[in-house]
Amino acid sequence: MYRQVLVLAVFAAHLGESPASCARNLNYRPIIGILAQEILEDDTDAQGSSYIAASYVKHLESAGARVVPIRINRTEEEYGRLFNAINGLLLPGGNVDIEKSEFSRAAKVFYELALKANDASDYFPIWGTCQGFQQLSVLTSNKNLLTLTDTKAVALPLTFSPGSQNSRLFKKFPKDVLQSLAEENITSNFHSWSLSLQNYSANPKLKRFYRVLTTNTDGTQEFISTMEAYRYPFYAVQWHPEKSPFEWIEKPGMVHTLPAIKATFYTAFFFVSEAMKNRHRFPSQIEEERALIYNYQPVFKGLSSIFLQNYYFD
Questions:
Q1: Which of 59, 93, 143, 224 sits a CA distance of 20 to 30 A from 239?
Q2: Cα of 299 vs its chain's centroid, Å
Q3: Which of 59, 191, 240, 280 is labelled catalytic?
Q4: In the predicted structure, residue 160 carries a pLDDT above the cut 50
Q5: pLDDT digits (tens, 9 = 90+) for 69-125
Q6: Is 2-313 a domain of CATH 3.40.50.880?
Q7: Model confidence at 17, in pLDDT bands (50, 70, 90)?
Q8: Which residues are CB-neighbours of 102 under 8 A, at least 6 positions away?
Q9: CA 186, CA 173: separation in Å to the nearest integer?
Q10: Active-site annotation holds for 59
Q11: b/e per residue, 225-237, with b = 16+ CB within 10 A?
Q12: What is the CA radius of gyration of the chain?
């Protein structure tokens, strides 16, 4: 009982509500969809045509959510039914075409459904990591504005924009976590393409839609590393919060320090708390059970793999 009260108080403080109000309004059984994507060409362990890295699943589960895999090559009608059953969407990192892939097609369907839902006061959050960040920028601007950067395997501190520490995403982070994010090399970057601050500023659609929370530089190009939408519960990070506790390849950019892991938890905690504001649910317990990630077994790919484990789907 004490633990339940304590957890409730933490969530209430995070959301800016009283514990009683929090108890009335939150969905304590959130289910978040993670969008699968086409397998990598050099994936010799592949057991299907698409995959989800297990670290994204663990990332959400660590903060109190369950996960449903969203498989590619499905109809808009199927995606619509699934949208009405889940409480949020995570667009993961990867390496597919963010304009022509099945990943991008499915992301567009869910993005448009989320816009309509939120406009109708049906709170539905989206989180994009790395490729997911890039995908959201394309969906909002209707064009690919990405620029090559030298950020393939490097850990960086975040440069916070003025006032961004009071943003929805960061305002409830502990001060020590914000300080570590700003001063230590704890955000893992594994991307060749970035949304430059210059291209963002020159595009009215992006500038009106997203608020820049943090930036980084590769020494030459300044790019956006964290952003959130003004009117919608959409969040995007170019860095990888899920890697520190759940990926173990020995490679530059991988950080397993306590501050990095603590920052990981608060990013997951934030997004799960956003999903708790949504009331979607499956029509029946049987359909819910059939959809959950527990029906699939992750494949161990070895310690030298960029993803320690993958879930595969036909």
A1: 143
A2: 22
A3: 240
A4: yes
A5: 999 999 999 999 999 999 999 999 999 999 999 999 999 999 999 999 999 999 999
A6: yes
A7: low
A8: 37, 38, 50, 72, 73
A9: 15
A10: no
A11: bbbbbeebbbbbb
A12: 18
Does position 5 have pLDDT exceeding 80, yes or no? Answer: no
Q: Is 240 a known active-site residue? A: yes
Q: Work out the percent of the chain whose per-residue pLDDT is above 90.
A: 89
DSSP at 164: G
Q: What is the pLDDT of residue 279?
A: 97
Instruction: Give me the torsion for CA of 132, 180, 256, 292, rounded to 10°.
Output: -40
**Residue 163 tokens, joined:** 């006032």
Dist. CA 134–CA 147, nearest whole Å: 11
What is the amino acid identity at position 77? E
| CA 71/CA 50 separation, integer angstroms | 8
Per DSSP bridges, beta strands 210-217 and 222-229 are antiparallel
What separation in angstroms does the CA of 10 have from each of 15, 30, 175?
9, 17, 15
Catalytic residue among 22, 130, 191, 280: 130
Cα–Cα separations (whole angstroms), residue 124 to 8, 74, 278:
21, 21, 6
Question: What are the tens digits of pLDDT across the range 269-284?
Answer: 999 999 999 999 999 9
Distance CA 275, CA 49 (A): 29
Q: Pull the structure tokens for residue 266.
A: 């608060």
